[in-house]
Specification:
This protein is α/β, with parallel strands linked by helices. The chain folds into two domains: 5-120, Response regulator (Rossmann fold, 3-Layer(aba) Sandwich); 130-184, Arc Repressor Mutant, subunit A. The N and C termini lie far apart (40 Å). It contains nine helices and five strands. The radius of gyration is 17 Å and the shape is elongated. A five-stranded parallel beta sheet has the order 2-1-3-4-5, sandwiched between helices. The model is unreliable at 119-125 and 186-190 (pLDDT under 50). It has helices at 14-24, 39-49, 69-75, 88-96, 108-120, 130-140, 145-152, 156-170, 175-184, and strands at 5-10, 30-36, 53-58, 78-83, 101-103.
Length: 190
């Protein structure tokens, strides 16, 4: 396929790589340009193919996996982690290394499509209120609705309403998608 979004898969689990390939290639505008079972092979393929996304499968048993993420981040614009583990410490460590997001496997294609849509939207027409921007920043920093409410001296109901408005405007379904959206680097005008 010429001109599609190129994706490199990195996984030591062939069955999971095959599942991801099927999901990705179910769309005509996405193509898997390579599959690597380890980071050295991934870097080699990335240098040759210049993928738009590198999708890395990280499992609970991948103790040393995060140490190589920084190298992959340097090889492409978007490194996306697909995992069954979603603990905040792991997500925080990944963000420090430059990863754009941590996504459950079943949401992989949707996450890639949303990021591609954001890439195309350079008009800057998306507008959040100052309060919504503050709430997004507090959500991204890991605060619960209760802590956000206390921090802003408002009720939890107000925080929930503001989050609903943010979710509608940004077309995200939940806090995880909001986190992914914001870690991608989307800009909001106030």
């Amino acid at each position: 396929m010429v001109g599609g979004t190129k994706i490199l898969l990195v996984s030591g689990r062939p069955h999971l790589s095959a599942q991801a390939r099927l999901r990705i290639e179910s769309r005509r505008d996405l193509v898997v340009v390579g599959e690597a079972e380890n980071y050295a092979r991934a870097l080699s393929i990335a240098a040759a193919e210049k993928p738009d996304f590198i999708v890395v499968d990280v499992g609970a048993d991948d103790d040393g996996a995060l140490g190589h993420i920084s190298d992959l981040v340097q090889a492409t614009k978007h490194v996306l982690i697909v995992s069954d583990i979603g603990e905040e410490t792991t997500l925080s460590r990944l963000k420090q290394k430059g990863v754009v997001g941590l996504v459950p496997r079943e949401q992989l294609v949707g996450a890639i499509i949303r990021w591609l849509e954001h890439d195309k939207d350079e008009s800057g027409t998306l507008t959040l209120t100052r309060q919504e921007v503050v709430v997004v920043k507090l959500v991204v920093s890991g605060l619960s609705n209760r802590r956000i409410a206390k921090s802003l001296s408002v009720s939890e109901a107000v925080v929930a309403q503001v989050l609903d408005s943010i979710f509608r405007k940004l077309k995200v379904r939940d806090r995880l998608e909001l986190l992914i959206y914001s870690s991608y680097g989307a800009l909001w005008r106030v």
